[in-house]
Amino acid sequence: MRLGWKELVRRPGRFLAAGGALTLIVILLLLLGGLLDGLFNASTGAYRSQTAELIVYSEDSRDSLLRSRIDPATEDEIRSVPGVRGVSGMGAVLISGRVLGGETVDLAVFGYEAPNRQVPAQPAPGRAYADATLEDEGVALGDTIAIGPSEVPVEVVGWVEDTRYLAQGALWVEPGTWHQVLVTARPDAALDEDTFQVALVETVDDAEAVAGRIREQVPGTSPLTIDEAVFALPGVQAQNDTFAQIIGVTFVVAGLVVALFFALVVLERLGLLGMLKAIGASTGQLAAGLVTQAVLVALGAFVLGGAISLALAAIVPAEVPVELEARRAAITGVGVLATALIGSAVSFRKIVRIEPASAVGGS
Amino acid sequence: MPALEMNDVRKVYGSGDQAVVALDHATLTVADDEMVALVGPSGSGKTTLLSIVGGLLQPTAGTVRVGPHEIDEYGPKELTRFRRGFVGFVFQGANLVPFLSARENLLIVSELAGVDRRHARRRADQLLEELGLAHRADNTPAKLSGGEKQRVAIGRALMNEPELVLFDEPTSALDTKLGEQVMDLIRKEVKGRGTAAVVVTHDSRMTHFADRTVEITDGRLVA
Q: What is the pTM of this model?
Protein backbone atom coordinates (compact mmCIF):
# COMPACT_ATOMS: atom_id res chain seq x y z
CA MET A 1 0.00 0.00 0.00
CA ARG A 2 2.88 2.31 0.92
CA LEU A 3 4.52 1.50 -2.40
CA GLY A 4 1.38 2.66 -4.24
CA TRP A 5 1.30 5.89 -2.25
CA LYS A 6 4.99 6.60 -2.91
CA GLU A 7 4.59 6.10 -6.64
CA LEU A 8 1.60 8.44 -6.68
CA VAL A 9 3.51 11.15 -4.83
CA ARG A 10 6.76 10.80 -6.73
CA ARG A 11 5.41 10.21 -10.21
CA PRO A 12 2.14 12.15 -10.30
CA GLY A 13 2.57 12.69 -14.04
CA ARG A 14 1.83 9.01 -14.66
CA PHE A 15 -1.64 9.45 -13.19
CA LEU A 16 -2.41 12.72 -14.96
CA ALA A 17 -4.41 11.10 -17.77
CA ALA A 18 -6.70 9.12 -15.45
CA GLY A 19 -6.91 11.97 -12.94
CA GLY A 20 -7.76 14.48 -15.68
CA ALA A 21 -10.45 12.26 -17.20
CA LEU A 22 -11.97 11.60 -13.77
CA THR A 23 -11.92 15.31 -12.93
CA LEU A 24 -13.90 16.07 -16.10
CA ILE A 25 -16.34 13.29 -15.23
CA VAL A 26 -16.77 14.67 -11.70
CA ILE A 27 -17.52 18.13 -13.16
CA LEU A 28 -20.06 16.58 -15.52
CA LEU A 29 -21.68 14.59 -12.70
CA LEU A 30 -21.88 17.57 -10.35
CA LEU A 31 -23.26 19.93 -12.98
CA LEU A 32 -25.77 17.36 -14.22
CA GLY A 33 -26.81 16.65 -10.63
CA GLY A 34 -26.94 20.38 -9.87
CA LEU A 35 -29.12 20.96 -12.92
CA LEU A 36 -31.44 18.12 -11.91
CA ASP A 37 -31.71 19.47 -8.36
CA GLY A 38 -32.28 22.99 -9.66
CA LEU A 39 -35.04 21.88 -12.01
CA PHE A 40 -36.59 19.66 -9.33
CA ASN A 41 -36.56 22.42 -6.71
CA ALA A 42 -37.97 24.95 -9.18
CA SER A 43 -40.91 22.67 -9.92
CA THR A 44 -41.74 21.28 -6.52
CA GLY A 45 -41.03 23.87 -3.80
CA ALA A 46 -44.69 24.67 -3.16
CA TYR A 47 -45.38 21.01 -2.36
CA ARG A 48 -42.19 20.27 -0.44
CA SER A 49 -42.87 23.23 1.86
CA GLN A 50 -46.10 21.64 3.12
CA THR A 51 -46.29 20.38 6.70
CA ALA A 52 -49.38 18.31 5.82
CA GLU A 53 -48.67 14.66 5.11
CA LEU A 54 -51.29 14.20 2.36
CA ILE A 55 -52.69 16.14 -0.58
CA VAL A 56 -56.18 15.05 -1.58
CA TYR A 57 -57.26 15.63 -5.20
CA SER A 58 -60.61 14.99 -6.80
CA GLU A 59 -60.42 11.60 -8.51
CA ASP A 60 -61.38 12.90 -11.96
CA SER A 61 -58.48 15.39 -11.92
CA ARG A 62 -55.92 12.61 -12.47
CA ASP A 63 -53.85 14.16 -9.67
CA SER A 64 -53.56 17.57 -11.34
CA LEU A 65 -53.77 20.54 -9.01
CA LEU A 66 -55.22 22.80 -11.69
CA ARG A 67 -57.99 20.32 -12.67
CA SER A 68 -58.90 19.21 -9.15
CA ARG A 69 -61.89 20.47 -7.10
CA ILE A 70 -62.60 19.73 -3.42
CA ASP A 71 -65.81 21.28 -2.12
CA PRO A 72 -66.59 22.00 1.56
CA ALA A 73 -68.77 18.87 1.91
CA THR A 74 -65.93 16.62 0.71
CA GLU A 75 -63.53 18.46 3.02
CA ASP A 76 -65.85 17.69 5.97
CA GLU A 77 -65.99 14.02 4.99
CA ILE A 78 -62.19 13.89 4.89
CA ARG A 79 -62.04 15.58 8.29
CA SER A 80 -64.18 12.80 9.77
CA VAL A 81 -61.87 9.98 8.60
CA PRO A 82 -60.04 8.35 11.56
CA GLY A 83 -56.39 9.43 11.74
CA VAL A 84 -57.00 12.86 10.25
CA ARG A 85 -55.82 15.68 12.52
CA GLY A 86 -56.55 18.70 10.34
CA VAL A 87 -57.69 19.69 6.86
CA SER A 88 -57.11 22.94 5.01
CA GLY A 89 -57.74 24.05 1.43
CA MET A 90 -55.23 25.15 -1.18
CA GLY A 91 -55.42 26.16 -4.84
CA ALA A 92 -53.15 27.62 -7.51
CA VAL A 93 -53.39 29.62 -10.70
CA LEU A 94 -50.63 29.93 -13.30
CA ILE A 95 -50.84 33.46 -14.64
CA SER A 96 -48.74 36.49 -15.48
CA GLY A 97 -48.62 39.73 -13.55
CA ARG A 98 -47.13 43.14 -14.08
CA VAL A 99 -45.25 45.09 -11.49
CA LEU A 100 -46.76 48.55 -11.62
CA GLY A 101 -44.43 50.60 -13.77
CA GLY A 102 -42.11 47.64 -14.30
CA GLU A 103 -41.59 44.07 -15.48
CA THR A 104 -44.12 41.40 -16.47
CA VAL A 105 -43.53 38.20 -14.50
CA ASP A 106 -44.87 34.64 -14.69
CA LEU A 107 -46.53 33.66 -11.44
CA ALA A 108 -48.06 30.74 -9.59
CA VAL A 109 -50.63 32.37 -7.33
CA PHE A 110 -51.47 30.13 -4.36
CA GLY A 111 -54.52 30.61 -2.18
CA TYR A 112 -54.11 28.85 1.17
CA GLU A 113 -55.76 28.48 4.55
CA ALA A 114 -53.05 27.13 6.82
CA PRO A 115 -49.40 28.17 7.13
CA ASN A 116 -46.67 25.69 6.17
CA ARG A 117 -42.93 25.20 6.70
CA GLN A 118 -42.03 28.24 4.56
CA VAL A 119 -45.13 30.40 4.39
CA PRO A 120 -46.55 32.13 7.47
CA ALA A 121 -50.25 32.57 8.27
CA GLN A 122 -52.44 34.16 5.61
CA PRO A 123 -51.73 37.82 4.82
CA ALA A 124 -54.52 40.39 4.67
CA PRO A 125 -56.72 40.49 1.53
CA GLY A 126 -54.88 42.03 -1.43
CA ARG A 127 -51.47 41.24 0.03
CA ALA A 128 -49.02 38.42 -0.65
CA TYR A 129 -45.88 36.66 0.41
CA ALA A 130 -43.66 36.27 -2.64
CA ASP A 131 -41.11 33.61 -3.45
CA ALA A 132 -37.64 35.14 -3.12
CA THR A 133 -36.76 34.20 -6.72
CA LEU A 134 -39.20 36.88 -7.91
CA GLU A 135 -36.74 39.45 -6.61
CA ASP A 136 -34.41 38.47 -9.49
CA GLU A 137 -37.28 39.20 -11.90
CA GLY A 138 -37.67 42.78 -10.72
CA VAL A 139 -40.18 42.42 -7.89
CA ALA A 140 -39.40 44.40 -4.73
CA LEU A 141 -40.88 44.41 -1.26
CA GLY A 142 -43.85 46.83 -1.18
CA ASP A 143 -44.43 46.52 -4.95
CA THR A 144 -47.98 46.05 -6.14
CA ILE A 145 -48.37 43.43 -8.86
CA ALA A 146 -51.34 43.70 -11.22
CA ILE A 147 -52.38 40.10 -11.86
CA GLY A 148 -54.10 38.78 -14.97
CA PRO A 149 -56.33 40.54 -17.53
CA SER A 150 -58.38 42.22 -14.76
CA GLU A 151 -55.20 43.42 -13.12
CA VAL A 152 -56.11 42.27 -9.62
CA PRO A 153 -53.75 44.29 -7.40
CA VAL A 154 -51.65 42.40 -4.87
CA GLU A 155 -49.00 44.03 -2.70
CA VAL A 156 -45.85 42.07 -1.78
CA VAL A 157 -45.44 42.18 2.00
CA GLY A 158 -42.76 39.54 2.60
CA TRP A 159 -40.38 37.00 1.05
CA VAL A 160 -40.55 33.22 1.38
CA GLU A 161 -37.90 30.71 0.29
CA ASP A 162 -38.10 27.63 -1.94
CA THR A 163 -41.82 27.68 -2.80
CA ARG A 164 -41.68 27.71 -6.61
CA TYR A 165 -44.18 25.70 -8.63
CA LEU A 166 -43.53 24.37 -12.15
CA ALA A 167 -40.60 26.79 -12.54
CA GLN A 168 -42.70 29.85 -11.68
CA GLY A 169 -42.27 32.10 -8.67
CA ALA A 170 -45.13 31.71 -6.19
CA LEU A 171 -47.31 34.41 -4.65
CA TRP A 172 -49.10 33.25 -1.50
CA VAL A 173 -52.44 35.01 -0.89
CA GLU A 174 -55.53 34.46 1.30
CA PRO A 175 -58.46 32.50 -0.27
CA GLY A 176 -60.58 35.52 -1.18
CA THR A 177 -57.81 37.17 -3.21
CA TRP A 178 -57.01 33.83 -4.83
CA HIS A 179 -60.63 33.34 -5.93
CA GLN A 180 -60.51 36.81 -7.52
CA VAL A 181 -57.34 35.88 -9.42
CA LEU A 182 -58.85 32.52 -10.46
CA VAL A 183 -61.88 34.23 -11.96
CA THR A 184 -59.76 36.66 -13.95
CA ALA A 185 -57.53 33.87 -15.21
CA ARG A 186 -60.20 31.29 -16.02
CA PRO A 187 -63.72 32.70 -15.89
CA ASP A 188 -65.05 29.25 -16.90
CA ALA A 189 -63.36 27.61 -13.88
CA ALA A 190 -64.68 29.92 -11.16
CA LEU A 191 -65.18 28.12 -7.84
CA ASP A 192 -67.57 28.69 -4.96
CA GLU A 193 -66.13 30.78 -2.16
CA ASP A 194 -65.24 27.82 0.11
CA THR A 195 -64.15 25.44 -2.61
CA PHE A 196 -60.44 24.77 -3.19
CA GLN A 197 -58.55 22.63 -5.66
CA VAL A 198 -56.99 20.29 -3.09
CA ALA A 199 -57.28 19.49 0.59
CA LEU A 200 -54.07 19.41 2.64
CA VAL A 201 -54.41 16.73 5.31
CA GLU A 202 -52.40 16.45 8.52
CA THR A 203 -52.51 12.97 10.02
CA VAL A 204 -51.98 11.45 13.43
CA ASP A 205 -51.40 7.92 12.06
CA ASP A 206 -49.19 6.55 9.33
CA ALA A 207 -49.92 8.77 6.30
CA GLU A 208 -50.27 5.86 3.86
CA ALA A 209 -52.80 4.15 6.10
CA VAL A 210 -54.84 7.34 6.41
CA ALA A 211 -54.66 7.80 2.63
CA GLY A 212 -56.11 4.32 2.22
CA ARG A 213 -58.99 5.13 4.58
CA ILE A 214 -59.75 8.40 2.77
CA ARG A 215 -59.80 6.57 -0.55
CA GLU A 216 -62.30 4.04 0.88
CA GLN A 217 -64.48 6.36 2.91
CA VAL A 218 -64.60 9.47 0.70
CA PRO A 219 -65.55 8.39 -2.83
CA GLY A 220 -64.30 10.54 -5.67
CA THR A 221 -61.04 11.52 -3.97
CA SER A 222 -57.43 10.65 -4.70
CA PRO A 223 -55.16 11.12 -1.67
CA LEU A 224 -51.38 11.21 -2.30
CA THR A 225 -48.48 11.55 0.10
CA ILE A 226 -46.36 14.65 -0.46
CA ASP A 227 -43.66 12.57 -2.17
CA GLU A 228 -46.21 10.95 -4.47
CA ALA A 229 -47.74 14.35 -5.24
CA VAL A 230 -44.30 15.80 -6.04
CA PHE A 231 -43.62 13.07 -8.58
CA ALA A 232 -47.16 13.39 -10.01
CA LEU A 233 -46.35 16.96 -11.03
CA PRO A 234 -46.09 17.31 -14.84
CA GLY A 235 -42.65 16.28 -16.11
CA VAL A 236 -41.00 15.74 -12.72
CA GLN A 237 -40.84 11.94 -12.88
CA ALA A 238 -39.69 11.91 -16.52
CA GLN A 239 -37.11 14.59 -15.80
CA ASN A 240 -35.75 12.66 -12.80
CA ASP A 241 -35.62 9.36 -14.68
CA THR A 242 -33.84 10.92 -17.66
CA PHE A 243 -31.21 12.62 -15.54
CA ALA A 244 -30.77 9.51 -13.38
CA GLN A 245 -30.03 7.48 -16.52
CA ILE A 246 -27.51 10.01 -17.82
CA ILE A 247 -25.82 10.18 -14.41
CA GLY A 248 -25.79 6.37 -14.18
CA VAL A 249 -24.14 6.03 -17.59
CA THR A 250 -21.58 8.68 -16.58
CA PHE A 251 -20.70 6.64 -13.48
CA VAL A 252 -20.23 3.58 -15.71
CA VAL A 253 -17.91 5.63 -17.94
CA ALA A 254 -15.94 6.67 -14.81
CA GLY A 255 -15.58 3.00 -13.84
CA LEU A 256 -14.42 2.10 -17.35
CA VAL A 257 -11.84 4.91 -17.34
CA VAL A 258 -10.39 3.64 -14.05
CA ALA A 259 -10.55 -0.01 -15.13
CA LEU A 260 -8.81 0.66 -18.45
CA PHE A 261 -6.17 2.90 -16.93
CA PHE A 262 -5.20 0.47 -14.20
CA ALA A 263 -5.35 -2.50 -16.57
CA LEU A 264 -2.74 -0.66 -18.64
CA VAL A 265 -0.74 0.16 -15.51
CA VAL A 266 -0.62 -3.53 -14.59
CA LEU A 267 0.36 -4.54 -18.13
CA GLU A 268 3.12 -1.95 -18.12
CA ARG A 269 4.48 -3.21 -14.81
CA LEU A 270 4.31 -6.95 -15.24
CA GLY A 271 8.09 -7.19 -14.71
CA LEU A 272 8.07 -5.05 -11.58
CA LEU A 273 5.05 -6.84 -10.10
CA GLY A 274 6.61 -10.21 -10.91
CA MET A 275 9.80 -9.17 -9.09
CA LEU A 276 7.79 -7.99 -6.07
CA LYS A 277 5.94 -11.30 -5.97
CA ALA A 278 9.28 -13.12 -6.21
CA ILE A 279 10.63 -11.36 -3.12
CA GLY A 280 7.50 -12.15 -1.15
CA ALA A 281 4.73 -9.67 -1.97
CA SER A 282 1.32 -11.30 -1.79
CA THR A 283 -1.36 -10.70 -4.41
CA GLY A 284 -3.35 -8.89 -1.72
CA GLN A 285 -0.50 -6.50 -0.96
CA LEU A 286 -0.03 -5.64 -4.64
CA ALA A 287 -3.77 -5.23 -5.22
CA ALA A 288 -4.04 -3.02 -2.12
CA GLY A 289 -1.39 -0.72 -3.59
CA LEU A 290 -3.30 -0.46 -6.85
CA VAL A 291 -6.64 0.17 -5.13
CA THR A 292 -4.98 2.82 -2.93
CA GLN A 293 -3.77 4.59 -6.06
CA ALA A 294 -7.20 4.39 -7.72
CA VAL A 295 -9.02 5.71 -4.63
CA LEU A 296 -6.53 8.56 -4.14
CA VAL A 297 -6.70 9.54 -7.82
CA ALA A 298 -10.51 9.53 -7.57
CA LEU A 299 -10.40 11.56 -4.36
CA GLY A 300 -8.09 14.14 -5.95
CA ALA A 301 -10.33 14.29 -9.03
CA PHE A 302 -13.37 14.77 -6.79
CA VAL A 303 -11.79 17.65 -4.84
CA LEU A 304 -10.50 19.36 -8.00
CA GLY A 305 -13.70 18.68 -9.97
CA GLY A 306 -15.79 19.94 -7.03
CA ALA A 307 -13.85 23.20 -6.86
CA ILE A 308 -14.14 23.75 -10.63
CA SER A 309 -17.88 22.93 -10.54
CA LEU A 310 -18.45 25.46 -7.76
CA ALA A 311 -16.65 28.10 -9.81
CA LEU A 312 -18.65 27.22 -12.93
CA ALA A 313 -21.95 27.21 -11.03
CA ALA A 314 -21.16 30.70 -9.78
CA ILE A 315 -20.79 32.08 -13.31
CA VAL A 316 -23.59 30.29 -15.21
CA PRO A 317 -26.48 32.62 -16.18
CA ALA A 318 -29.35 32.84 -13.68
CA GLU A 319 -31.70 31.21 -16.24
CA VAL A 320 -29.78 27.93 -15.89
CA PRO A 321 -31.14 26.52 -12.63
CA VAL A 322 -27.97 24.79 -11.35
CA GLU A 323 -28.07 24.20 -7.59
CA LEU A 324 -25.06 22.43 -6.04
CA GLU A 325 -26.19 20.77 -2.83
CA ALA A 326 -24.07 19.02 -0.19
CA ARG A 327 -26.22 15.89 -0.53
CA ARG A 328 -25.54 15.72 -4.28
CA ALA A 329 -21.81 16.30 -3.72
CA ALA A 330 -21.75 13.48 -1.16
CA ILE A 331 -23.56 11.09 -3.52
CA THR A 332 -21.19 11.99 -6.36
CA GLY A 333 -18.12 11.63 -4.13
CA VAL A 334 -19.17 8.23 -2.81
CA GLY A 335 -20.17 7.14 -6.33
CA VAL A 336 -16.86 8.15 -7.89
CA LEU A 337 -14.87 6.47 -5.11
CA ALA A 338 -16.95 3.31 -5.46
CA THR A 339 -16.51 3.20 -9.23
CA ALA A 340 -12.76 3.74 -8.78
CA LEU A 341 -12.71 0.86 -6.32
CA ILE A 342 -14.65 -1.43 -8.63
CA GLY A 343 -12.74 -0.27 -11.71
CA SER A 344 -9.36 -0.96 -10.13
CA ALA A 345 -10.56 -4.32 -8.80
CA VAL A 346 -10.89 -5.46 -12.42
CA SER A 347 -7.07 -5.60 -12.49
CA PHE A 348 -7.04 -7.94 -9.49
CA ARG A 349 -7.43 -11.00 -11.74
CA LYS A 350 -4.47 -9.92 -13.81
CA ILE A 351 -2.32 -9.53 -10.67
CA VAL A 352 -3.35 -12.98 -9.44
CA ARG A 353 -2.11 -14.45 -12.70
CA ILE A 354 1.34 -12.86 -12.57
CA GLU A 355 3.84 -15.65 -11.98
CA PRO A 356 6.60 -14.79 -9.50
CA ALA A 357 8.87 -17.03 -11.58
CA SER A 358 8.61 -14.47 -14.39
CA ALA A 359 11.15 -12.37 -12.47
CA VAL A 360 13.99 -14.80 -13.14
CA GLY A 361 15.62 -15.78 -16.40
CA GLY A 362 15.35 -12.28 -17.83
CA SER A 363 11.75 -12.86 -18.95
CA MET B 1 22.17 -29.11 8.14
CA PRO B 2 22.92 -28.13 4.52
CA ALA B 3 21.47 -24.87 3.26
CA LEU B 4 20.01 -26.65 0.24
CA GLU B 5 19.21 -30.25 -0.41
CA MET B 6 17.37 -31.29 -3.55
CA ASN B 7 16.82 -34.91 -4.42
CA ASP B 8 15.74 -36.41 -7.70
CA VAL B 9 13.85 -33.28 -8.71
CA ARG B 10 11.93 -33.27 -11.97
CA LYS B 11 10.10 -30.43 -13.60
CA VAL B 12 7.93 -31.14 -16.61
CA TYR B 13 6.02 -28.43 -18.47
CA GLY B 14 2.91 -29.45 -20.40
CA SER B 15 1.70 -33.00 -20.79
CA GLY B 16 1.49 -35.86 -23.28
CA ASP B 17 3.23 -35.21 -26.59
CA GLN B 18 3.67 -31.57 -25.63
CA ALA B 19 5.59 -32.39 -22.41
CA VAL B 20 8.95 -30.67 -22.01
CA VAL B 21 11.32 -31.92 -19.33
CA ALA B 22 13.08 -28.85 -17.95
CA LEU B 23 14.75 -30.58 -15.01
CA ASP B 24 15.50 -34.25 -15.03
CA HIS B 25 16.25 -36.10 -11.77
CA ALA B 26 18.38 -33.24 -10.46
CA THR B 27 20.12 -33.80 -7.17
CA LEU B 28 22.17 -31.07 -5.51
CA THR B 29 23.37 -30.27 -1.99
CA VAL B 30 24.80 -26.90 -0.98
CA ALA B 31 26.48 -26.54 2.41
CA ASP B 32 25.43 -23.72 4.72
CA ASP B 33 28.35 -21.45 3.80
CA GLU B 34 29.02 -22.72 0.31
CA MET B 35 28.91 -20.70 -2.91
CA VAL B 36 27.99 -22.76 -5.94
CA ALA B 37 28.15 -21.55 -9.55
CA LEU B 38 25.56 -23.09 -11.85
CA VAL B 39 26.57 -22.91 -15.49
CA GLY B 40 25.00 -24.16 -18.66
CA PRO B 41 23.80 -23.09 -22.08
CA SER B 42 20.50 -21.34 -22.73
CA GLY B 43 17.52 -23.64 -22.20
CA SER B 44 19.53 -26.08 -20.10
CA GLY B 45 17.27 -25.69 -17.02
CA LYS B 46 19.28 -23.15 -14.95
CA THR B 47 16.34 -20.82 -14.50
CA THR B 48 13.95 -23.65 -13.68
CA LEU B 49 16.34 -24.97 -11.02
CA LEU B 50 16.76 -21.51 -9.53
CA SER B 51 13.00 -20.98 -9.54
CA ILE B 52 12.31 -24.26 -7.76
CA VAL B 53 15.03 -23.71 -5.16
CA GLY B 54 13.74 -20.18 -4.54
CA GLY B 55 10.14 -21.29 -4.08
CA LEU B 56 8.95 -19.63 -7.27
CA LEU B 57 7.95 -22.91 -8.93
CA GLN B 58 6.81 -26.25 -7.60
CA PRO B 59 8.69 -29.36 -8.80
CA THR B 60 6.77 -32.08 -10.62
CA ALA B 61 8.57 -34.70 -8.51
CA GLY B 62 11.37 -34.96 -5.96
CA THR B 63 12.12 -33.18 -2.69
CA VAL B 64 13.57 -29.73 -2.03
CA ARG B 65 14.71 -28.65 1.41
CA VAL B 66 16.08 -25.17 2.14
CA GLY B 67 17.44 -25.23 5.69
CA PRO B 68 14.60 -26.74 7.69
CA HIS B 69 11.95 -25.87 5.05
CA GLU B 70 10.65 -28.73 2.92
CA ILE B 71 9.36 -26.38 0.25
CA ASP B 72 8.24 -29.03 -2.23
CA GLU B 73 5.29 -29.58 0.12
CA TYR B 74 4.37 -25.91 0.43
CA GLY B 75 1.29 -24.31 -1.08
CA PRO B 76 1.31 -20.87 -2.76
CA LYS B 77 0.78 -18.90 0.48
CA GLU B 78 3.49 -20.80 2.35
CA LEU B 79 5.85 -20.28 -0.57
CA THR B 80 5.17 -16.52 -0.49
CA ARG B 81 6.03 -16.48 3.23
CA PHE B 82 9.12 -18.59 2.57
CA ARG B 83 10.40 -16.23 -0.14
CA ARG B 84 9.69 -13.22 2.07
CA GLY B 85 11.63 -14.55 5.05
CA PHE B 86 14.19 -17.19 4.16
CA VAL B 87 15.63 -16.67 0.71
CA GLY B 88 17.22 -13.75 -1.09
CA PHE B 89 17.12 -13.03 -4.84
CA VAL B 90 19.38 -10.98 -7.06
CA PHE B 91 17.83 -10.71 -10.51
CA GLN B 92 19.31 -9.97 -13.92
CA GLY B 93 19.75 -6.24 -14.41
CA ALA B 94 19.15 -5.59 -10.71
CA ASN B 95 15.37 -5.10 -11.22
CA LEU B 96 15.00 -2.29 -8.69
CA VAL B 97 11.83 -0.27 -8.12
CA PRO B 98 12.54 2.86 -10.18
CA PHE B 99 10.72 5.42 -8.03
CA LEU B 100 12.30 4.36 -4.73
CA SER B 101 15.67 5.39 -3.35
CA ALA B 102 18.42 2.84 -2.76
CA ARG B 103 17.49 2.65 0.93
CA GLU B 104 13.79 2.26 0.18
CA ASN B 105 14.54 -0.54 -2.29
CA LEU B 106 16.08 -2.42 0.62
CA LEU B 107 13.22 -1.54 2.94
CA ILE B 108 10.62 -3.09 0.60
CA VAL B 109 11.60 -6.50 1.91
CA SER B 110 10.97 -5.56 5.54
CA GLU B 111 7.75 -3.73 4.65
CA LEU B 112 6.40 -6.83 2.95
CA ALA B 113 7.31 -8.86 6.03
CA GLY B 114 5.89 -6.27 8.44
CA VAL B 115 9.20 -5.83 10.28
CA ASP B 116 9.60 -2.91 12.72
CA ARG B 117 10.51 0.14 10.61
CA ARG B 118 13.20 1.52 12.87
CA HIS B 119 15.00 -1.82 13.08
CA ALA B 120 14.65 -2.27 9.30
CA ARG B 121 16.07 1.17 8.59
CA ARG B 122 19.09 0.49 10.80
CA ARG B 123 19.73 -2.76 8.95
CA ALA B 124 19.30 -1.13 5.52
CA ASP B 125 21.75 1.65 6.40
CA GLN B 126 24.22 -0.88 7.76
CA LEU B 127 24.02 -2.96 4.57
CA LEU B 128 24.42 0.12 2.36
CA GLU B 129 27.46 1.10 4.43
CA GLU B 130 29.00 -2.36 3.99
CA LEU B 131 28.29 -2.26 0.26
CA GLY B 132 29.95 1.15 -0.05
CA LEU B 133 26.67 2.87 -0.89
CA ALA B 134 26.02 4.95 2.22
CA HIS B 135 26.44 8.16 0.21
CA ARG B 136 23.96 6.89 -2.41
CA ALA B 137 21.23 5.85 0.03
CA ASP B 138 18.82 8.57 -1.08
CA ASN B 139 19.44 8.21 -4.83
CA THR B 140 16.92 6.53 -7.11
CA PRO B 141 18.15 3.80 -9.50
CA ALA B 142 18.22 6.28 -12.39
CA LYS B 143 21.06 8.09 -10.64
CA LEU B 144 23.09 4.95 -9.91
CA SER B 145 25.68 3.25 -12.13
CA GLY B 146 25.20 -0.36 -13.26
CA GLY B 147 27.54 -1.64 -10.55
CA GLU B 148 25.84 0.42 -7.87
CA LYS B 149 22.42 -0.87 -8.91
CA GLN B 150 23.67 -4.44 -8.63
CA ARG B 151 25.08 -3.69 -5.17
CA VAL B 152 21.70 -2.31 -4.09
CA ALA B 153 20.12 -5.51 -5.41
CA ILE B 154 22.59 -7.54 -3.34
CA GLY B 155 21.69 -5.46 -0.29
CA ARG B 156 17.99 -6.11 -0.91
CA ALA B 157 18.66 -9.86 -1.15
CA LEU B 158 20.43 -9.78 2.23
CA MET B 159 17.83 -7.64 4.04
CA ASN B 160 15.87 -10.58 5.44
CA GLU B 161 19.03 -12.36 6.63
CA PRO B 162 18.36 -15.32 4.31
CA GLU B 163 19.71 -18.84 4.63
CA LEU B 164 20.23 -18.99 0.89
CA VAL B 165 20.83 -16.28 -1.70
CA LEU B 166 20.09 -16.95 -5.35
CA PHE B 167 21.84 -14.92 -8.05
CA ASP B 168 20.38 -14.91 -11.56
CA GLU B 169 23.11 -13.88 -14.00
CA PRO B 170 24.29 -11.07 -11.70
CA THR B 171 27.02 -9.90 -14.12
CA SER B 172 25.18 -10.22 -17.44
CA ALA B 173 24.60 -6.46 -17.76
CA LEU B 174 28.14 -5.51 -16.63
CA ASP B 175 31.51 -5.37 -18.40
CA THR B 176 34.20 -7.84 -17.38
CA LYS B 177 35.96 -5.58 -14.90
CA LEU B 178 32.75 -4.50 -13.19
CA GLY B 179 31.46 -8.07 -13.32
CA GLU B 180 34.56 -9.29 -11.47
CA GLN B 181 34.16 -6.55 -8.86
CA VAL B 182 30.54 -7.55 -8.31
CA MET B 183 31.39 -11.26 -8.07
CA ASP B 184 34.17 -10.43 -5.61
CA LEU B 185 31.67 -8.43 -3.55
CA ILE B 186 29.13 -11.27 -3.68
CA ARG B 187 31.73 -13.72 -2.44
CA LYS B 188 32.79 -11.42 0.39
CA GLU B 189 29.20 -10.75 1.44
CA VAL B 190 28.02 -14.37 1.46
CA LYS B 191 31.20 -15.71 2.98
CA GLY B 192 31.29 -12.96 5.59
CA ARG B 193 27.79 -13.92 6.68
CA GLY B 194 28.17 -17.66 6.38
CA THR B 195 25.31 -17.68 3.93
CA ALA B 196 24.94 -20.19 1.13
CA ALA B 197 24.63 -18.98 -2.46
CA VAL B 198 23.79 -20.37 -5.87
CA VAL B 199 24.98 -18.19 -8.72
CA VAL B 200 23.57 -18.85 -12.16
CA THR B 201 25.96 -17.61 -14.82
CA HIS B 202 26.79 -18.29 -18.40
CA ASP B 203 30.13 -16.50 -18.02
CA SER B 204 32.86 -19.08 -17.28
CA ARG B 205 35.26 -16.28 -16.30
CA MET B 206 33.21 -15.73 -13.17
CA THR B 207 33.04 -19.29 -11.92
CA HIS B 208 36.37 -19.16 -10.07
CA PHE B 209 34.74 -16.92 -7.45
CA ALA B 210 32.55 -19.89 -6.43
CA ASP B 211 33.63 -22.79 -4.18
CA ARG B 212 32.28 -25.23 -6.68
CA THR B 213 30.87 -25.22 -10.19
CA VAL B 214 27.95 -27.38 -11.25
CA GLU B 215 27.05 -27.76 -14.90
CA ILE B 216 23.58 -28.34 -16.19
CA THR B 217 22.75 -29.67 -19.64
CA ASP B 218 19.31 -30.63 -20.90
CA GLY B 219 17.98 -30.49 -17.36
CA ARG B 220 20.61 -32.83 -15.95
CA LEU B 221 23.20 -31.77 -13.39
CA VAL B 222 26.85 -32.67 -13.87
CA ALA B 223 29.06 -32.03 -10.84
A: 0.82
